[in-house]
Specification:
Distance between the termini: 27 Å
Number of helices: 6
Shape: globular
Radius of gyration: 16 Å
Helix content: 40-55%
Largest sheet: none
């Protein structure tokens, strides 16, 4: 899930036992709240079953959160991913931490691409680039990481943004 290969951190398309959800709540008033919540369900689960059978189709509209131009609250995506990363670091599992770092880089890159389209806020761009660079080297040599994330890291060094 954190490497974004078989399934995503999104809430849709998943079924949970009530006991897995337990006391976990989605943050109120935040967007991209699923990235800061779904991993907790997975950590609570004794077993996770995945099917790649296509039985659900997701329509992405141009005015959806993912399709619309950058807005300040898009940074919720980065903050939720940072919370995920920090919580995973507390588990102290090296492989899981590497996966969470990859997801964090991907999140920062997504917001950075939105910012690039609107030529907005150099301070935020620099912070996102710094976040990507921080974990990029470990991620670059991890064979489980998507090529897209590795390219994102490399692009931060060639003045693409």
């Amino acid at each position: 899930m954190l490497y974004q290969k078989e399934f995503e951190t999104s809430a849709w398309g998943k079924i949970y036992k009530r006991s897995v959800i337990a006391d976990v709540v989605f943050p109120v008033g935040k967007i991209y709240e699923d990235i800061g919540t779904i991993y907790k369900f997975i950590l609570n689960a004794k077993r996770v079953v995945y099917s790649n059978r296509k039985i659900y189709y997701y329509l992405q509209r141009s005015d959806s959160i993912m399709g619309r131009p950058y807005k300040k609250n898009d940074l919720d995506y980065v903050y939720q991913a940072e919370k995920l990363l920090n919580d995973i670091k507390n588990i102290n599992d090296k492989d899981l931490i590497r996966a969470a770092e990859s997801r964090y880089v991907s999140t920062n890159f997504s917001v950075l691409l939105k910012l690039k389209k609107c030529n907005s806020d150099d301070e935020i761009k620099n912070e996102l680039i710094s976040n990507i660079r921080k974990y990029g080297l470990n991620m670059f040599f991890n064979r489980k990481v998507r090529i897209k994330n590795k390219v994102a890291w490399l692009l931060t060094f060639v003045n693409y943004f």
